[in-house]
Amino acid sequence: MSKPILYSSWSSSCSSRVRIALALKKIDYEYHAVNLRTDEEQKDFALNNPAKKVPILKINGLTLTESMSIIEYLDEVYPNPPLLPKDPEARAHARAIAFHISSNIQPLQNLAICRKLEEIQKGYGIQWCHDVICRGFDALEQLLKLYSGRFCVGDRITIADLVLPSIVYNATEKYNVDMGPYPIISRIAAELGGIPEFEAAHPSRQPDAPKN
Q1: Is residue 108 packed enough to be buried (19+ CB in 10 Å), middle (13-18) or exposed (0-12)?
Q2: By 3-state DSSP, what share of the chain in percent is helix, strand and coil, each rounded to 5?
Q3: Which residues are CB-contacts of 34 (< 8 A; sequence separation ≥ 6)?
Q4: What residue ranges do the domains of the chain occupy?
Q5: How many C-beta atoms surround the C-beta of residue 157 within 10 A?
Q6: Listed residue (45, 32, 34, 23) closest to 2, CA to CA
Q7: Which residues contact 119 (CB under 8 A, 6 or more apart)?
Q8: How far apart are CA 99 and CA 152, in angstroms?
Q9: Nearest 5°: phi and psi at 154?
Q10: Around 143, how many Cα atoms within 13 Å sit in the side-chain half-sphere?
Q11: Which end of the chain has the lower number of beta carbons within 10 A, N or C?
């Protein structure tokens, strides 16, 4: 069986989640860097995903899209280590936190929105993304007060932890968000950052990341 292929971009939050999942599942894969800013790349890429978005994972004869769907597929087909808790209540909490980040925060601060708003007024896009993350983090911090242990939900890594590092990266590296009001988010992000599989998936460690 051929090696899985991940179509990814170093700076993509959605790609980052899948890279972490693949690393945790010990799945060796081929990394195919995608630059969606070029017309030719977009034309070729649309053959695999009409939405022209990363990530795409080619695995087991399938072409999978949408990061959260990919992660749940991997968890069902490669069950160790599990990314969804067996307990229904904990599983619901893990999914709720994951989707709060992936649906309520990340799409509203992505590069396309930032650029479009910057076209309207210089500085507006950056401020919008900053404010979106802060509002999202205000709620996330409260959720983590209720459900977190060492990680987002209890003391085991779940799907919620896979989506946290990339949004914290965007907050601190792109939009200058003050993390002082978010001690739980900061603590868990630091804890995850020291885990080898999360380190390997960091944007700076990807082959297409800028070298300077």
Answers
A1: middle
A2: 55, 10, 35
A3: 7, 8, 9, 41, 45, 54
A4: 5-81, 88-197
A5: 23
A6: 32
A7: none
A8: 13
A9: 70, -150
A10: 24
A11: C
Q: Residue 103 above 90 pLDDT?
A: yes
Q: Which CATH number is 88-197 given?
A: 1.20.1050.10
Q: Where are the alpha helices (DSSP H) in 12-123?
A: 13-24, 39-45, 67-77, 88-99, 111-120
Distance CA 39, CA 19 (A): 25
Full strand arrangement of the beta sheet holding 5-8:
30-33, 5-8, 56-59, 62-65
CB 45 within 8 A of CB 57: no
As a whole number of angstroms, the distance between CA 96 and CA 160 comes to 8
- For residues 200 and 180, give the distance between their C-alpha atoms in angstroms, rounded to a whole number: 26
Distance CA 162, CA 73 (A): 14
Query: pTM to 2 decimals?
Result: 0.93
Tens of pLDDT, residue by residue over 65-89, are: 999 999 999 999 999 999 999 999 9
CATH code of 5-81, in short, is 3.40.30.10
Amino acid identity, residue 128?
W
Q: What is the per-residue pLDDT across 41-51, written as a single tens digit (0 to 9) for each?
A: 566 666 777 77
How many angstroms separate the CA atoms of 165 and 173, rounded?
12
Question: Would you state the structure tokens that stand for residue 61, as one six-digit string?
Answer: 């004869």
Please report how many Cα atoms fall inside a 13 Å half-sphere around the Cα of residue 85, on the Cβ side.
22
